[in-house]
Amino acid sequence: MNLILLLFLVGVLLLAFEVIVPGGILGAIGGLALLAGVVLSFIDFGALGGILSLLAAGLLVLVMVLVEFVLLPRTAIGRRLFLHAAIGGASQPPPADAAAVVGAVGTTVTTLAPTGYVEVNGRRYEGFSRSGLLESGTPVRVDEVDNFRLIVTKTQ
User: Fold this and answer.
1) Is 96 left (phi over 0), alpha (psi -120 to 50) or beta?
2) What is the residue-wise DSSP string for 94-134?
3) CA distance 144 to 11
4) For residues 94 and 121, which has the higher predicted lDDT (pLDDT)?
5) Three-class secondary structure of residue 24 per DSSP
6) What predicted TM-score, i.e. pTM, was given to this entire model?
7) What does residue 66 show for φ and ψ, rounded to 5 degrees?
8) CA–CA separation, 148 vs 125, rounded Å?
9) Measured between alpha carbons, how far is 127 from 146 in angstroms, rounded to an integer?
10) Side-chain half-sphere CA neighbours of 53 within 13 A
11) What is the pLDDT of residues 53-102, one digit of tens each?
12) What confidence score (pLDDT) does residue 20 get?
């Protein structure tokens, strides 16, 4: 009986610390401790004792989740633990408007071998050369837009 209570206590504490130390490891170990307590309850007290301990473990986890994600963010400590702002931004520049750049003439900013960067209409885009290796500063014409890059050919 003492081991079962100890496993439940350790499991709940580790799940509670998961909020402070994210990463999933403490939560996984806590869940395994609760599961071990339930299994030992089935072994020691039979089906009825095991089912009651399973319900108790589920209730403990539910109460803990409600406390951590409903009550804790409203406290002074919780306001410092939880993030309230999102970071905006994009990892890629917006894709080129095909109607605005197809047929336009620009120059290579870097060597295209066969990919690199081109400047068209004052904006820098990733480019792919159909003409093979192109040195930087080479005039190019945009033939098409493919996802986030421009397909270009060398102009004379």
Assistant:
1) beta
2) PPP-HHHHTT-EEEESS-BSSEEEEEETTEEEEEEESSS-B
3) 58
4) 121
5) coil
6) 0.51
7) -65, -45
8) 8
9) 9
10) 26
11) 999 999 988 988 888 888 888 888 888 877 777 777 766 566 667 778 89
12) 77
Q: What is the pLDDT of residues 5-39, one digit of tens each?
A: 999 999 989 988 887 787 889 889 999 999 999 99
Residue keyed to tokens 């100890």: 6
Amino acid identity of residue 1, one-letter, is: M
Pairing relationship of beta strands 123-129 and 105-108 according to DSSP bridges: unpaired
8 Å CB contact between 132 and 115: no
> How far apart, in whole angstroms, are the C-alpha atoms of residue 80 and residue 88?
21
Give the number of C-alpha atoms closer than 13 A to the C-alpha of residue 130, restricted to the C-beta side.
Answer: 14
